[in-house]
Specification:
Elements (H helix, E strand, L loop, with lengths): L1 H38 L6 H12 L5 H25 L4 E5 L5 H9 L4 E5 L2 H9 L5 E8 L3 E2 L1 H9 L3 E9 L3 E4 L10 E4 L1 H6 L1 H7 L2 E4 L3 H11 L4 E5 L1 H6 L3 E4 L9 E8 L9 E7 L6 H11 L4 E8 L7 E8 L5 H13 L2 E8 L2
Parallel strand pairs: 1-2, 1-3, 7-8, 7-9
Antiparallel strand pairs: 3-4, 3-11, 5-11, 6-9, 6-10, 12-14, 12-15, 13-14
């Protein structure tokens, strides 16, 4: 009995040390949550968690109990995420549109604990973050069918925010109308230009008039406000439910793999190691200047995922370039690339890095 009491006392002592270490760990978790809020990063990072488990499991020499330690680690990280969620409940994320917009759906998926702040357009959502009125903003970069969202690319070029995350959201467009409407009643369809473009073949077959709106959720709201059963909108199932509209036809987008990539932008650049990077730049109006810039990227071992050219609004017939590369430009080789690139570019900005 005395022997058991002695063992229990040793366990109590270990528990006291573990409690102190737990408190220390949770204080560090709080700092991580604050960093994620500033940088616009999500709580859950599956790759990071798996790396921690794989590395830390090796610290346990006793193979018989190693698997139990893995469970201990996973439970500890689950508690850590709960604590981070609680801290991030005060996070504010701006987006363009009203409740039910695809951007708002993306916000809810990326930051389920944050307050989603509705804005009238991309510029207002961006500037809300620049001014510190929101912690970050979520804006669409491109759609797999309709292409880039030029207005957002322009904000990235001219603004001060950094892209720290890119999230892909599958888009399923629906034709929605008033509860009393039938498909045969529809004469006009309202939606965002991108949504109208994504559903062009279906709309052509339907033989309706198209009308542009700020976004899909505003289009749905317009249908409700008009009270005209001949008017429909292109929006998501979630949006239809929010506004009490009837779904006349689901999945009307041309592509079955319709996906929109959303950028998470914040005032602070993510300092963690990342898989991809974004730069924007201009080059002199000289023969071979763009080719020279592209060659520099390749010469430093970075593969270009994409390059987009955009007209500069304040200078006629002048263009800037948006480039995504595989690799982290915060690395040593990335620093050399940026240094060499700055010598041949009139303007160069490292926009940020993210994990794909």
């Amino acid at each position: 009995m005395e022997e058991l009491a002695g063992i229990r006392e040793k366990i109590n002592e270990v528990d006291r040390k573990m409690a102190a270490l737990f408190e220390e760990r949770m204080n560090l978790v709080s700092s991580v949550a604050e960093y994620k809020m500033k940088s616009g990063l999500p709580v859950f990072d599956e790759k990071r968690e798996q790396d921690v488990v794989n590395r830390n499991a090796g610290f346990v020499e006793n193979e018989e109990i190693r698997s139990y330690y893995v469970n201990f680690l996973k439970n500890t990280m689950a508690v850590s995420k709960m604590y981070q969620h609680r801290i991030l409940e005060g996070m504010r994320v701006s987006y363009s549109g009203v409740a039910g917009a695809f951007a708002q759906i993306a916000v809810d998926k990326i930051f389920p604990d944050a307050v989603a702040v509705s804005c009238k357009d991309f510029k207002e959502a961006y500037e809300m973050t620049e001014k510190g009125l929101t912690d970050c903003c979520v804006l669409p970069l491109e759609n797999s069918n309709a292409g880039e969202v030029g207005a957002v690319i322009d904000l990235i070029f001219s603004g001060s925010l950094f892209v720290n995350q890119v999230y892909s959201l599958s888009i399923h467009q629906c034709l929605v109308a008033l509860p009393e409407s039938e498909l045969s009643d529809i004469k006009t369809v309202i939606s965002h230009p991108q949504a109208l473009s994504q559903c062009e073949p279906y709309l052509r077959e339907l033989g309706v008039r198209k009308k542009e709106s700020v976004n899909t959720a505003v289009a749905a709201q317009t249908v409700l406000d008009k009270g005209d059963k001949s008017v429909a909108a292109i929006a998501s199932r979630d949006t239809a439910e929010i506004y009490g509209l009837k779904i006349l036809k689901e999945n009307i987008n041309e592509s079955e793999t319709n996906t929109t990539r959303f950028a998470v932008l914040s005032r602070v650049m993510n300092s963690a190691k990342s898989e991809c990077s974004i730069i924007v730049f201009t080059v002199p109006d000289e023969a071979g200047s763009l080719a020279h810039a592209i060659n520099i990227i390749g010469n430093h071992g970075f593969n270009m995922r994409c390059i987009k050219s955009r007209a500069m609004k304040d200078l006629m017939w002048t263009y800037y370039f948006y480039v995504e590369v595989d690799g982290d430009l915060k690395s040593r080789s990335g620093s050399f690339l940026l240094a060499e690139l700055s010598d041949c570019c009139d303007k160069l900005r490292f926009v940020g890095s993210f994990n794909s």
